[in-house]
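Deliverable D4.2, example record:
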Amino acid sequence: MNKKYLCIKDNLLFETKGSTPKYVNKSLTIVLNQKCVRNGMVDYSFSQYISEQQNIADGKYVKIGDVLLNSTGQGTAGRCAFVDHIPENYKVTVDSHMLILRFENIELARFFAYSLYKQESYILELLTGSSGQGELDREIVYNISFPFDDKNLKIFNKILVAINNKIKLNNKINKELENLAKTLYEYWFVQFDFPDENKRPYKSSGGKMIYNKELKREIPIIFERKELQDFCNIFTGKKDVKMAVENGEYPFFSCAPEPLKSNDYIFDGKAILVAGNGSYTGRVSYYKGKCDLYQRTYACTLKNTDNNLIPFLYYFMKFFFEPQYKGGTHGSAIPYIVLGDLANLGIPYNEEIINKFNDTVKPILDTYFKNCEENKQLILLRNFLLPMLMNGQVTIQQ
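Output generated by the structure prediction step:
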């Protein structure tokens, strides 16, 4: 039987920690940070730039096939990602809170990256030092033994690459859909060039505007001011994040981008979710179904479930509220928002125009969340099949 166990320590060719970066607005050297490590992949949208004059040792530049591992920070240390792409014409390095691991070949690197990702909840607990900025216990991590079936390594890699590529394609499509929705929202409700009764852009065609003191902006004379609480019930969860369970039945939304798990749910339906504190304060997302909430995560749910306001309200919150409230309106050490920031949020409102907007963007939103759901199913498939391959429980002919 070919099944055996492998650990990182016995297969690691090279390991290094990143440098403290000197950030600049733009350069040809990208620096990754802990936020860039998401779901076993590298997300460059959270990256920054460092001066090309900063002295970075050659070994601290990332290569395709490397495995990145967050090494510090409560809740982030232990997250890992496999590097399968480096933006053309750029160099990439990591900051001092991340490790670069290099193995003999890409197939082995993918195996270890995925194996670490599967053990993420356990590895996140392997911190030493202070509770806020603990250091990952690398000695324990590097000695974890992972089941390995060498005859299945190639098909393991093929399946992993195929599924991850489909997930990335869906994410890319969703990014374009979000950009399209943002363009439409700004055209209709920032420039107020929604189609008038003659299908011409309202403001550009001479549509009458009036200054609204409460909104502190000009709005079309046919609009009025409403508040978010006029349309939504707004509430938070009751639990601390420590009450999450590893294999719970329902998503448990904290203020971080990725949900945890819970065996209970507080709501069943459509909800706009807003992170209420921490580094992601003000972040807006949407969920449909049963879910649980952290005590500082806000849910905005429609009072009248028969109306069609969700698309407009979601994009209003995403493109108007989030940029203004990101980072919080209160607090210094730990930023936060309060219920009044949401409840009293002023909305320029015209029922007829908003209904037309909703009819326009609903297919965009539906496709966006269809792709999100497909990604969830792909992740479930990946996490079911790949461990069985490495355990030797199944064999798939190539």
